[in-house]
């Protein structure tokens, strides 16, 4: 796993340090602990249910609050910037190109990010994969699907994804969760095509959503593991060891 770089995406109402603590035992068992960079979402948020009992006085964050078209696009742009190692900032902080007479060109947010995508397309990947929890899963899965829809000929921005207690992403077009009936391409259904691992708690209230997220992946690319727990990363030693072995298989498959 030399040189492996993984981006950690937390759930709503937590932050990067909380997720680092939550998945620390799992990352150590999978031997990826030193390869994961955890980032916090850009949006302030109320703390997730009961999280204050264990992590009081934190700066709780989210990737987006209400899943409106604008906020979903902004969150995907933010994640795209993280994955490409681009500077982060508000739309007004995105550098603008200049014309020959040095007058500034006014670009829309989407045009500015499209320009960055074009300029950075041939640069080395900043990250090989992601490890996500809850809302972080929806964000990463949404970017992967949106890339397949809008740029079907392009390579996915990452090689693999680890989804912990995930759910289907919201479409920035309809603001509804994606379903398999919607994702019909001209020649074949649109799917997440990179290798993925779906870690689902048997007592998680969103358990069905985790399986529905896996259904949005191309056949043969998704592995699903259920563990004895709720909406939280695995805690029992037996579950941690089983999931760690699956993570190692996933990384080997993605790097083959």
From TrEMBL:
Database matches in PANTHER family: ESTERASE OVCA2
Organism of origin: Tilletiaria anomala (strain ATCC 24038 / CBS 436.72 / UBC 951)
GO CC entries: cytoplasm; nucleus
Top-level lineage group: Eukaryota
Protein's UniProt keywords contain Hydrolase: yes
Name of the featured protein: Serine hydrolase domain-containing protein
Swiss-Prot/TrEMBL keywords: Hydrolase
Gene Ontology terms, MF aspect: hydrolase activity
Keyword Hydrolase listed: yes
């Amino acid at each position: 796993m030399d040189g492996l770089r993984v981006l950690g995406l937390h759930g709503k109402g937590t932050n990067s340090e909380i997720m680092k603590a939550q998945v620390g035992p799992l990352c150590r068992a999978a031997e990826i602990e030193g390869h994961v960079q955890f980032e916090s979402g850009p949006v302030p948020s109320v703390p997730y249910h009961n999280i204050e009992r264990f992590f009081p006085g934190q700066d709780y964050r989210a990737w987006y609050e209400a899943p409106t078209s604008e906020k979903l696009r902004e969150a995907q742009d933010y994640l795209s910037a993280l994955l490409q190692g681009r500077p982060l900032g508000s739309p007004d902080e995105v550098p603008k190109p200049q014309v020959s007479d040095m007058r500034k060109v006014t670009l829309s947010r989407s045009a500015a990010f499209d320009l960055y995508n074009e300029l950075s397309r041939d640069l080395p990947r900043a990250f090989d994969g992601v490890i996500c929890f809850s809302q972080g899963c929806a964000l990463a899965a949404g970017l992967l699907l949106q890339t397949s829809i809008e740029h079907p000929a392009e390579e996915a921005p990452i090689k693999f994804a680890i989804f912990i207690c995930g759910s289907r992403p919201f479409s920035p077009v309809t603001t509804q969760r994606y379903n398999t009936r919607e994702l019909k391409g001209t020649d074949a259904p649109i799917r997440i095509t990179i290798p993925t691992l779906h870690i689902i708690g048997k007592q998680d209230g969103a358990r069905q959503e985790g399986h529905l997220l896996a259904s949005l992946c191309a056949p043969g690319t998704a592995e699903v593991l259920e563990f004895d727990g709720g909406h939280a990363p695995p805690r029992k030693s037996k579950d941690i060891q089983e999931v760690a072995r699956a993570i190692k298989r996933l990384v080997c498959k993605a790097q083959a």
